[in-house]
Amino acid sequence: MVRVSGSGKELKRICWLIVAGLLGACTPAPEFTDATGQPVSLHHFAGKPLLVNYFAPWCAPCLREMPRLNALAEEGEIAVVAINYDPTTPAKLGQLATRYKIKVPLLIANEDAKLPFPRPSALPTSYLLDSEGKLKQTLIGELDPSNIEMLKATISRMSH
């Protein structure tokens, strides 16, 4: 029979704390905040392709493409979120959604977010991620019906 000394128990406890810390570190910090102030992470959308669209209320092409993004999200094949390019508050996001009839979730990107795509240099910019959150395509400019058909074709190729 082996006796466990006090220092052995302490060592075991330290090992468990290290393991717990490492497991905790595997959970990424939420990348976004939604219009209700809740944290949202990209892994909430895992299992389905995701279109991340950067927009601003002062960007006319961004607002023109919103009904198309709403319709695309409604079809259900691709999850769609819109990120407000400018610093804002959750309350202002709610007001934007109402004013511009935006049905897709509006998000604020957190400053220290580790995203699989860069902050865009032009608006609107959309990033297509696969169901595992890997960047598959970057689309700069307004999404028109032909761009959206191309996105759908890309999605169907990814899922087969």
UniProtKB/TrEMBL annotation:
<dbReference type="InterPro" id="IPR013740">
    <property type="entry name" value="Redoxin"/>
</dbReference>
<dbReference type="Pfam" id="PF08534">
    <property type="entry name" value="Redoxin"/>
</dbReference>
<keyword id="KW-0676">Redox-active center</keyword>
<dbReference type="InterPro" id="IPR013766">
    <property type="entry name" value="Thioredoxin_domain"/>
</dbReference>
<dbReference type="GO" id="GO:0015036">
    <property type="term" value="F:disulfide oxidoreductase activity"/>
</dbReference>
<feature type="domain" description="Thioredoxin">
    <location>
        <begin position="21"/>
        <end position="160"/>
    </location>
</feature>
<keyword id="KW-1015">Disulfide bond</keyword>
<dbReference type="GO" id="GO:0030313">
    <property type="term" value="C:cell envelope"/>
</dbReference>
<protein>
    <submittedName>
        <fullName>TlpA disulfide reductase family protein</fullName>
    </submittedName>
</protein>
<dbReference type="InterPro" id="IPR036249">
    <property type="entry name" value="Thioredoxin-like_sf"/>
</dbReference>
<dbReference type="InterPro" id="IPR017937">
    <property type="entry name" value="Thioredoxin_CS"/>
</dbReference>
<dbReference type="InterPro" id="IPR050553">
    <property type="entry name" value="Thioredoxin_ResA/DsbE_sf"/>
</dbReference>
<keyword id="KW-0201">Cytochrome c-type biogenesis</keyword>
<dbReference type="GO" id="GO:0017004">
    <property type="term" value="P:cytochrome complex assembly"/>
</dbReference>
